[in-house]
Amino acid sequence: MTRVVLIRHGRSTANADGVLAGRAAGIRLDEAGRDQATRLREALASAPVAAAYSSPIERCLETAQLAGFPDPLVVEGLTECDYGRWTGLRLDELRSEAVWDTIQADPGSVTFPDGESMRDMFDRVTGVVGDLAARHADDETIVVFSHGDPIKAVLAHAFGIGIDRFQRVHVNPAGVSVIEMRGDRTMVLCVNAGGDLSDLIGSRPGHVVGGGDVARAK
């Protein structure tokens, strides 16, 4: 099976400020995020990686570069969900929106205002990751740098729980998840390896849109 290492970008300035960054330009890693990404370099140093792929958004490319992949292949389909008019808004404000509860309970029915539907995002990213894995031999490892919701989608698909239950999955900034893929057969090896465990056991993930960012200052 082709091994796919899914890595969410390190903590960004938007994560730290509790803002839904989406596809907004100019959002970079903060100091904690750069440290997270640099630590990934050591963790991945001995891995026999055949190729590295990345979302085109700056915070993913910065994470890939700090993790030891200076020229990842940019794949548009790995980009963040398009949150439309929600882009750039504070998560604590968005919680008061009427559709918020629907995003948690029935995400497959949600389309963001002037943006992408969660179902389209789910289908886009799972299809792209499947295509990338199919390019490689069964014994090869690839690394994919993407965003919270897209990685949650890939993991939910791998677990066989689908879009309507993908909010049951959480991925931390710089969290590493590994799956193996051979055609339609998928095995999940780990979820959220690495990173700072205090982000998982020290406080609950407070927001479940944009990947469920833990937006507390360090």
Automatic annotation (TrEMBL):
What the entry lists under Pfam families is as follows:
His_Phos_1
SUPFAM superfamilies documented for this protein: Phosphoglycerate mutase-like
Superkingdom of the source?
Answer: Bacteria
Q: Which InterPro entries match?
A: His_Pase_superF_clade-1, His_PPase_superfam, PGM_Phosphatase
Q: What is this protein called?
A: Histidine phosphatase family protein
UniProt source species: Tessaracoccus lacteus
